[in-house]
Design goal:
Radius of gyration: 22 Å
CATH architecture: 4-Layer Sandwich
Structural class: alpha+beta
CATH class: Alpha Beta
Number of helices: 7
Order of helices and strands: EHEHHEEEEHEEHEHHEEEEEE
Number of strands: 15
Helix content: 10-25%
CATH topology: Deoxyribonuclease I, Chain A
Shape: globular
Largest sheet: 7 strands, mixed
CATH superfamily: Endonuclease/exonuclease/phosphatase
Length: about 325
């Protein structure tokens, strides 16, 4: 934890400090007239130093399925040491900030924990201090969307979204509600959550490009799970959930992994039963998506199935523009 960081604000409220930021190109100072004369009058304006406007980052997203367990096993620390992400987004942390000691010098950390103890939750670790961090959806979304299901389980109190604003883009991490085995949360997911999340990303996109990542709890196409036929209509592969993902694509967001890799056999989650991971019988339900304007900035996107510690593995993207 970086010194001086304060705990993230309650869900939906604007959080954290606003560090001083500069967002401009630096130009070398103009020469004096006598210097131009000495040069024989041949002088042109030097090119802009655009380095401060560049977008360069390596971002990882990982559903850790309980941060305390991954840290206790030493697998979180070894992952950070090996990958050295500029930004790390976590889902299903199942912890509050302060419940576990995570020694990551050089990183600022922000948490959005569920009201229910030991459940859900997201976090962002970043080398660069964000301009601002917001937990949850904006307050006005409560009047546009209903986040509680028929059992009054309120998804807006489950720590599922964090957005961080940086000089050149927004980073959002999300842990999308699971539809449940009995599909009891499918209506909430399809009619409320998915439209709200898309609306939020498009709202952010009005000011800067958006990178969003996380566990979206859906396999988009039949190429994104090992057994599509037997899972059609089940949680994570219903028409409603797939349609919600397609709306993200139709709105202009890019599935970065598919820019580089096609075909099946590339998964991010495996059932803990029947040796599913060893046999690579899994689902691709974790994504990094970017605004269309960032398409050319995406230099690499990958899945990291060799990283252990959770039933999910990390996914990553490298941006350079």
């Amino acid at each position: 934890m970086a010194a001086g960081d304060s705990a993230a604000a309650p869900a939906g409220r604007r959080a954290v400090n606003r560090p001083e930021t500069r967002d401009y190109c630096e130009r070398p100072p103009l020469p004096r007239p006598r210097d131009i004369a000495k040069a024989g009058g041949n002088w042109t304006i030097p090119p802009l130093d655009d380095s401060k406007n560049a977008i360069r980052m390596k971002l990882y997203s990982w559903n850790v399925n309980g941060i305390r367990s991954v840290v206790k096993k030493g697998l979180f620390q070894s992952f950070i040491k090996a990958q050295r992400p500029d930004i790390l987004c976590l889902q299903e942390t199942k912890a509050e900030r302060g419940q576990i000691e995570i020694d990551l010098p050089g990183y600022h950390e922000y948490w959005n924990s569920a009201v229910k103890k030991g459940y859900s939750g997201t976090a962002i670790f970043s080398r660069e201090k964000p301009i601002q961090v917001v937990n949850g959806f904006p307050h006005e979304f409560a009047t546009r969307f209903r986040f509680a299901d028929e059992l009054e389980r309120d998804s807006s109190e489950e720590g599922r979204v964090i957005s961080a604003e940086f000089p050149k883009l927004h980073v959002v991490t999300v842990y999308t509600p699971n539809a449940k085995d009995d599909l009891s949360r499918l209506a909430l997911r399809h009619k409320q959550w998915d439209p709200a999340f898309l609306a939020y990303c498009k709202q952010l996109e009005k000011t800067k490009p958006v990178v969003f990542c996380g566990d979206l709890n859906v396999a988009h196409t039949e190429l994104d799970l090992a057994h599509p036929k037997s899972n059609r209509g089940k949680k994570g592969f219903t028409q409603e959930e797939r349609a919600g993902f397609q709306q993200l694509v139709d709105a202009g967001f890019i599935d970065t992994f598919r820019l580089f890799t096609q075909g099946n056999g590339h998964y991010t989650w495996w059932s803990p039963f029947a040796g599913s991971r060893a046999r690579n019988v899994g689902w691709r339900i974790d994504y990094v998506m970017v605004s269309e304007s960032l398409r050319k900035a995406v230099k690499a996107a990958a899945i990291h199935p060799d990283v252990m510690g959770s039933d999910h593995c990390p996914v990553s993207v490298t941006l350079d523009a």
